Amino acid sequence: MILKGKKGILLGVxxxxxIAWGIFKSLQEQGAEVALxxxxxxxxxxxxxxxxxxxxxGVELLECDVSRQETIDATFKTIGxxxxxxxxxxxxxxxxxxxxxEGRFIDTSRDGFGMANDISAYSLVxxxxxxEPYLAPDAGIVCLTYLGAExxxxxxxxxxxxxxxxxxxxRYLAVDLGPKGIRVNAVSAGPVNTxxxxxxxxxxxxxxxxxxxxxxxxxxxxxxxxxxxxxxxSNLARGITAQTLYVDCGFAQVGVGPMEAYKxx
Length: 265
Ligand code: NAD
Ligand code: 0WE
Known about the structure:
Distance between the termini: 54 Å
Structural class: alpha/beta
Bound molecules: nicotinamide-adenine-dinucleotide, ligand 0WE
Order of helices and strands: EHEHEHEHEHEHHE
Shape: globular
Helix content: 25-40%
Mean pLDDT: 95
Strand order of the largest sheet: 3-2-1-4-5-6-7
Radius of gyration: 18 Å
């Protein structure tokens, strides 16, 4: 019970496949009290159903569309009233236009670039700022990222740029909040078959490549991503901040990448 008596908020549960759901279970298993947020009424229905199916009751559910500052402010006002101080914040959401996740990156529109960065990267800054008054002195903030922030990953395009902004934001936020004892980290997950991965060209192939070449020779699970996030939220990670931790079965360290990219023949 690493998180016994600890409280926090998790943004980004959409359904049972969500990485955020794996994180929720890991946090709960270790004794944490976790408030959840949903983007809109449709997502609320999905989260309500999920909690009911699993016989989970008494979870604080709050509406938070990160593109709307007023819903961020309202969320943390409620958190302050109901929880007082919180020990962790987990950011597990992203969005880009489908059209900006295929074809040529050069074709990204000004609006698409702005929107993806706003929802996927700036939101971490806005949430950290809104959470700051309510964060316990040893609190942890964790967000989810992907290898495409640092390497060229086919079709990840605009999201790669947004994740690069997110990872850099983690480092600057860590500097701002470090003097208060608050830590900020990212977990870089390998591919997971979620709603956000559905319909992505070549996704199945990516899973196959990771299965074949990663040191562990398999795909990372929501559960092991959840456990890593849980660790970073906990006091066991008290000396860790401004980091990106890879939970990808070692895939990122295998330099070869997809062999097809070399087209040697
Ligand atoms: P998901 O679709 O289950 O979760 C994405 C969430 O983002 C949803 O809950 C959605 O409601 C939320 N969201 C989108 N726009 C929002 C907004 N304006 N306000 C509030 N919430 C909003 O998909 P997922 O794969 O679990 O994604 C979670 C995180 O994990 C994302 O940051 C994603 O980039 C990251 N990630 C995913 C993978 C993968 O392969 N699936 C790999 C590495 C990192
Ligand atoms: O971060 C992500 C997914 C982010 C995402 C996915 C979508 C699909 C549907 C953001 N916005 C949208 N918008 C939509 O309309 N991942 C790490 C999963 C992912 O997405 C990819 C990947 C991988 C892996 C997109 C292209 C190539 C690889």
